[in-house]
Amino acid sequence: MIVLSRRAALALPVAVPAAAHAQGWRPGQQSRIVVPAAPGGTTDIMARLLAQHLQTKWGTPVVVENRSGGGGTIGTMEIVRAAADGRHMLMGNIGPQAIGYSLFRNLQYRPDSLAPVANVIRGPNVLVVHPSVPARTVPEFVAWLKGEGSRASYGTSGMGQSPHLSGVWFNQLAGTQAEAVHFRGAGPLLIDLVAGNVQFAFDNLTTSIDHIRSGRLRGLGVTSADRSPQLPDLPAIRETMPELAAYDVSTWFGLFMPAGASAEIIRSVNAEVQALLAMPDTQARFAQMGGVPAPGSAEDFAAFVRAEIAKWGGVIRREGLQMDAT
After folding, report:
1. Residue 325 falls within a domain, yes or no?
2. Lower Cβ count inside 10 Å, N or C end of the chain?
């Protein structure tokens, strides 16, 4: 992870001219970043880091507003309907900004309703269990699930979010069953998981890593193709069983604005994000959380989002998953 962070720093000179060009644009008054999830999760953490950075750079307040519910669609609509003047931003993520387009049959926005500004952080989800679950490996966990029938329950940070779909795909590949219990964000989910009210979860590593390190939760494997440098002893789930060889999920969090935001505004804010990602303090914080910076231009981020929409659209169509946004 440190190596990747250094690469991000090496890429900074490319962003410097953009930053210099964009210094002429500032919002001039209070701005906001909408978080389509409850406080305490990775989306919320990223928004607050960025808000603090922008507030310092711009000299005007940048507030964070949590609008949870509907698998992230409620908060997203808040920004879709907002003025495209640069003062209204969304800290989006893989759920409402990629998975949701295929998952929800009554979605009120489309990919072209938002302007991608900058990716911020990426990382795996992690399979975590309450210590009462008598499994220390993924094969043992699968055997336990099969023994439980449908009695086991797993928490998600929201219907249609990456942790939810991680659990759905895992159960389908492993031939297991469990009841999904949906929460309004990772914060409330982790409270109930640590308390033992649900038995396991596929959570973002960034929000679960401290619970794993403390022993409050037991990590069994990460959802990404490779192991995480922050927890190298934790296997990639796909390496644990032949049935799970195709399993590969990484989550991400990035900044969006309403469609129609000017190229100048987007370049300016993207340049500020690149500056934030290149800071040693940011890189250290991300490493501590189990994520890596995701630097790049707005065009890079837009292409990445299109690829993610196509990937999850294929997965969801093959599985026949559809639900209503609430």
Report:
1. no
2. C
